[in-house]
Please model this.
Amino acid sequence: MTEPILEMRHISKRFDMTQALDDVSLSLYPGEIHALVGENGAGKSTLIKVVTGVHRPDHGEILLDGKPVHIHNSQEAQARGIAAIYQEPMVFPDLNVAENIFISHRDRGLVVNWGRMYKDAAAILAKLDVGLDVRMPARGLTLAAQQAVEIAKAISLDVRVLIMDEPTASLSAHEVAQLFRLVRALSRQGVAVLFIGHRLEEVLEIATRVTVLRDGKVISSRPRSEVSAEQVIRDMVGRQIEDFFAKSQIERGELLMSVRGLSKENAFADISFDVYRGEVLGFAGLIGARRTDVGLALFGVEPADAGQIIFEGRDLKLRSSQQALELGIAYVTEDRRQLGLTIPMSIATNITLPTLRNYLTGLGLVKRSDEYTAAEQYRQRLSIRADSVRVEVAKLSGGNQQKVMLSKWLNARPKLLIMDEPTRGIDVRTKAEVHHMISDLAAQGLGIILISSDLPEVLAMSDRILVMREGRQMGMFNRQQATQENIMTAAMGQNHLVMETQP
Amino acid sequence: MNLIRRHFRPEQIRELVLVLLILAIIIFFGTQVQEYYSGRTFNRISTSIAIIAVVAIGQTLVVLTRNIDLSVGSIVGFTAYFVGTQLSRNNDIPPMMAVVMAIALGAAMGAVNGVLVAYGRVPAIIVTLGTLAIYRTMLVEYSDAKTVLTSTLPQWVQDLPSDNVVSLGEVDIRLMVVVALAVVVLFQLVLTYLPYGRRLYAIGSNPDAARVAGFPAQRIVFVAFVLCGALSGLAGFMFMARFGNVTVVAGFGTEMQSVAAVVVGGVNIFGGSGTPIGAFLGAVLIGVLEQSLRRWPVISEFWRDAVLGMLILVAVATDAVIMNRLRQLWARSELQMEIPSAPQPVLAGVDPSLEVDALSERQGEGKHVS
Model:
């Protein structure tokens, strides 16, 4: 084979607690379509950011044409012939197609020659076999057409390495076929393509080489001809489960909530499940599986369009979060800083915020002392590490913030608790505490829906696991059936490979 | 229809609508106001529009980048007063020198805004609200609340407002009007034919993409503020020449008039679209309305501002509706991506020698798991 264009040697990158990349080496050859796959948090995004100059690696070097280079920002990366295309195309909606292609060029003279620009743009699109009018404003273009414009732009800039970060995530099957034609055209012209994808069948269709990343390490890197879907999935999973606290077995109580055919346009469709008291129902899936949307629908924030929710035997039409809260449904958000907590306020005010009505005096004023008493109970019960409940939430660590958020919703005395990524970004010890808490809550008879992208966590904590993929329910697994392979296979849309399934 | 769609942007159709609207207003007031179609009316309206049009062009540059410059009124006032004072102190300053002084002073004040917005990353509305007050206070301090008097200005300045370039019967085309038109044409060309101009649109159109597109977005925004200041400086000079008497309230409210002209003229307040010609037409529309309402006895002077305000709201609302329709029309056009080859089966592109593990055959079975 010829010499690689881009070579990454022993790249490592660490963010606070997590080793995002651990001694990653990867080579990109001209004409190669190199697929990069891995679970959420495997390090794919970090790797792209290192190559495009957004992050600097802690160790290791990047070689371009065999020479070491230091890339500081995306402009520099572009100048060296490395371009990235993201899920959401970065086009300028008010400019037309030709302008979008040439907006970053520096060598096209002092004055815009519109005639020549249209001609050149048309020539580039023709080379790619894209029938797109160069005078069209980009605003009206479909996502696929916008991506075609971005690819044309990359080509006109003499890009040699093109990184595509989940370019197919919001495309229809037909558009994906168009995109793949373009990618193949590029590779025929000698461009090295690094393709990041979540849909395994697409990855296997387009790639000439497949590299699997797990926990920041390269697990395998094989030519397409030597890999199978089963093989890739096996490489992606396989983390140790032993380190995790497992949910204690609890006698499952009576039926708490039944959901049938829950659907919401452009989000999810036909989701059906039951939750029992004392049960933890795990929601597994990759990013973009739309699990959070289901959570928000059950909490009434973004109500579903269709389907039935029966809660404690009553048919519900959930329209607001207040309504959900009064019924006993609480939702602990994944986005602590934006949606979960009022960061500059104290622990006590945060905890009592949704239930403030219970802390009023006869005149309708907030009774501080009651607030503090209630908050103090939670501080002790969940061992929130702070001197007092008057401390601002901003001063707490991520894990303790998580506990404050949990206290806030527990204080509403829910019957069903929806937890969205409750352990994201917190350290191992606090993580174990949160797991312990979930188990305790279930033992007290709460029904819990646990949305988590951390596969071993879902497996350890859940009594049953619902797997979603792109807004669809891919399967429901009980404890015996749920293995990392089975879950990941379903999450990647390869259900037919699952050997044992629930009837 | 396709021909129209190919060669015109929706914005251009919109400007045509604006021209028709202005004509309709002129025809309407022709039936309402006596001696409306006279040289005097034209001269009064055209000179009043000239100053605001120049500021509106500067405002357009800034608004295109998804920013706003609220300090233009104070820049107009300060440069008018400053240049006026210099000219009354020394009547021998050459005319060109005085103009350059005004422009340079305005540019310097615009540069302060530009640095803070582009490099300091402070929102433009905050920065320019601050400098609006600061520049006005500088003017009050500098002037000591005195007034520049017409009689102290050199003769050429006193004559300037009535200088004609051409006269057609009793209709005079004043020098100031020609200057304003020249500014409009110049910046229309800059925005159409210079890479700088196209990038202004790009930045306002999608600031996130502009950051990773590989051109100096910060510098482009900075220069937009400098140019806006420079044009406000030029407008300040025109203000001084037109009114002669310059007080501390000179140019008061110009920021709102310029923003109104820009918005009515179809420049998107969220950046990315609009043209100097559009902004100019907006200034004309507002100027014609304002001057005509003044002479229309039906509406009392207390209601004039309210009527004007309502017309602006109506203009912006219709604009939004029309633009949406036009854009949909353009987007729906059959000029969209055409696919030469028929959709391919899922694995058709892969070399048949590769191990194809029957993915496509099994795909249909995936569903019945749940």
Q: What stands out?
A: The two ends of chain A are 49 Å apart (CA to CA). The CA atoms of residues 62 and 108 of chain A lie 31 Å apart. Residues 173-188 of chain A form the longest helix (16 residues). Residues 499-503 of chain A have pLDDT under 50 and may be disordered.
